[in-house]
Amino acid sequence: MNKRLQCIFLKGELPVTQTKGSTSALVFSTIAMIVSFTIWSMISPMAQDISALYNLSATQVSILVAVPTILGSIMRIPLGILSDKYSGRKVYTLTMLFLIIPLIGASFADSYGWMLFYAFFIGMGGTTFAIAITYVSGWYPKEKQGLVLGIAGVGNIGTAVAGFIIPVIVATYSIDWAFRILAIAIAIMAVIFYFGTSDREQSGQKTLKSALEPLKHQQTWMLSLFYFLTFGVFVALGLYLPTLLQDLYDLTSVDAGQRAAIFVVIATFIRPLGGMIADKFDPKKLLTVVFLVIAACAAIIAFTTGNVILFTVFCLTIAIFSGMGNGVVFKLVPMVSQGNTGAVTGIVGAAGGLGGFFPPIVLGVFKDMTGGYYLGFILLALFSLACLWVNLRRQKLVK
């Protein structure tokens, strides 16, 4: 392992200068991600309405909520690589146009099976994260990567937007029209993005072998582990909190969706702060604090789900520190393998997405088995402690 990779978590050389077109790339990529993430997260806020329509069990609901994260996670890897090799602008636009197909299909779904099928492909909305990060990072120098990628990550706010608007659309119109309205929105966004941005020069000569070169780096896998936790808990709670709040405290779908949206808003807007702090201070120490706080909060929540005030306080604390952790991790991503930011982003982003896939299913299964959710939060605390242990050993691992 070369010297640059040995100190990758504290240093990095990215010979990129900020050029004309960088601001539009950042602004339109972030807005496009907001719309795409609204689509990616739209099933959760109306899950109870779909459950009532098809008389679903808790496990079936949790699978429906979680299934969009599968494709949205796995496909981040190839789309990140394609964004490195070709034009991130074109890949982004085509991905948004693709989303129109499952959205229209879901609006005509007449069974749980068909809804599950289209929800899987709606998951492509989650891949825009890897595309946006890759596209935006190429426009900015290393000293701005933490802040800029944190700003781009604000596109995650789409999860909160879904929590606010989807229950209202469903209550005002119907489940079908929720899908149709977002199909129109993403079509408009694709056109605006394509004509509002420009391409950076791409080599187009990169082979699959060179694109997968980051898989050999320990840093790639450590960041994937950390992002599995920080982004995973963000996605999992952002998606499953509406169901959790309705079940635990008998809230309406609109009230539960809005409360979950607050969680997402906090985590999302803290993310740039985490990246900015990581530009100036030791990321290892920052991640140590993040993992300790998440572990402590999850352990407390496990035994206080009957108290809505304590549940709220510690969930929002998790929102703050998971958002900060997301920003810190992605400050480090462009430094792992110069010229392969898309590949690293895809791998790490896929890990984070998968981190959001499993918890809702686990919580649903535990609910059906035990009647409660405490075991799920205990597992979260234990996994956070495992990440803490890896982080503390990291300097030894890179020597």
UniProtKB/TrEMBL annotation:
Compartment list: Cell membrane
Pfam family, one: MFS_1
Any Gene Ontology biological process: nitrate assimilation
Organism: Lentibacillus salicampi
Membrane topology: Multi-pass membrane protein
Keyword list, A-Z: Membrane, Nitrate assimilation, Transmembrane, Transmembrane helix, Transport
PROSITE patterns membership: MFS
Name of the protein in its database record: NarK/NasA family nitrate transporter
Transmembrane annotation, as ranges: 21-41, 61-79, 91-109, 115-135, 147-171, 177-196, 225-244, 256-274, 286-303, 309-330, 342-366, 372-392
Family in the record: Belongs to the major facilitator superfamily. Nitrate/nitrite porter (TC 2.A.1.8) family.
InterPro entries: MFS (IPR011701), MFS_dom (IPR020846), MFS_trans_sf (IPR036259), NO3_transporter (IPR044772)
Single GO molecular function: nitrate transmembrane transporter activity
SUPFAM superfamilies linked to this entry: MFS general substrate transporter
Domain Major facilitator superfamily (MFS) profile: 25-399
GO CC aspect terms: plasma membrane
